[in-house]
């Protein structure tokens, strides 16, 4: 049943997100086509506008992926569509998991579209070398391999945003357990859940600091003369902490849903 | 085994008690009218049967199972509002129901849609509310369920279509299944009712065989209702 649910959730997101994907790629192509070596003033202006559109579409992809995940979740679970969702012969766990996997998939698709758009619009030998040199400077300073740095950086960003989205789901579930001001309480509870989740991540890292003094140094000193291995540990620890928080939040959301819902 | 058992069910919102200690049972093969004034608790009771609300106390059993996945397999529910994703076409909605309900008969649904002049390729967003309600009724009545729960099925449709809907209901459920119909339009559905349940201020005040009640009171169900709930 999960795959069937996912099929319809993905269809919904494709219908709503594809326009942003197409526009991002389209403006990226326009930017590339206009980026001639010798530009007239008018072409230069058009290039800047087109380039701005690429950035705007990238912003749209990020914001819409997050917002539409929340809206889809609220509509499916608590608005008119909930009359269908909760009367399907499907467990609440499957309903929730479908929404979570849908978010995950569209996050990855969105990320890939952003990378492709940026490459189409701005790829050049100089730009590429500039980026790789910049990353190399950082990784040398932190005593990390480039691959490790990129993977950890992306993973932490991804887990952080995924955690924020799930905090939103948790807030929506809690907010709709109340009889009044459901939207307001959803936002409030979501924000509180996010703050608690972030504090827990920080708490886990701090607790680890008692075992590893190099990590504790990050909390104690304001100077940058600290052991660079601490950053490597910090990255791994953050990923593990986020994975734990995301699992915990997912468990809590499913538990609350299994206690029953009250649809207006 | 009883088809539906509602045992000591109460439902409160904050301090307000909407349903108070509701008890009733329902066997197969009956068409039951759930009748009451606005705000009497009819929709709340129906939502509880369909897992859209959680009872404050008591329990509801369908074929001996607590409300959950198993009961949803055998209940076909028509809510009072339109619940379909408006971005979908009618044909996609049929596919959706076929995916999730093993007892859904897609050929029957297509025939019913044809009878009602509804286009399979039309988007729900392009349809009027009345047309969307007809689509929903078709979906619900195209299932071979044990229990059909219809909340105000005639509310949004024109009088000319009401008879068709009632005939659809009558001719599309098997003899072992039961139908619960909640409505204000008692005179419209009176002819098909086997049993009536009168609900008022969150309590069941009468459950009776429809014919026995008519004979006893020497009046139609509609008249009895008007007399009983006179303001």
Instruction: Give the total of domains of chain A.
Output: 2
Please identify, by name, the CATH architecture of chain B.
3-Layer(aba) Sandwich
Shape of chain A: flat
Shape of chain B: globular
- Looking at the structure, the CATH topology of chain B is Rossmann fold
Provide a count of the helices of chain A. 9
Number of domains of chain B: 1
Structural class label of chain B: alpha/beta
Characteristic terms for this protein:
heterodimer, A: 2 domains, 9 helices, B: alpha/beta, Rossmann fold
What's the gist of this structure?
The complex is a heterodimer of chains A (264) and B (231). Chain A has 264 residues and is mainly alpha-helical.
Could you explain the architecture of this structure?
The complex is a heterodimer of chains A (264) and B (231). By secondary structure, chain A is an all-alpha fold. Chain A has two domains: 113 residues; 123 residues, no CATH class. Helices cover 83% and strands 0% of the residues of chain A. Chain A is flat, with a radius of gyration of 22 Å. The model of chain A has no long low-confidence stretch (mean pLDDT 88). Chain B has a single domain, classed as P-loop containing nucleotide triphosphate hydrolases (Rossmann fold, 3-Layer(aba) Sandwich). In chain B, 35% of the residues lie in helices and 26% in strands. Chain B has nine helices and ten strands. In chain B, a hairpin with a 2-residue loop joins strand 4 and strand 5. The longest helix of chain B has 13 residues. The radius of gyration of chain B is 18 Å and the shape is globular. At the A-B interface, helix 1 and helix 3 of A face helix 2 and helix 3 of B.
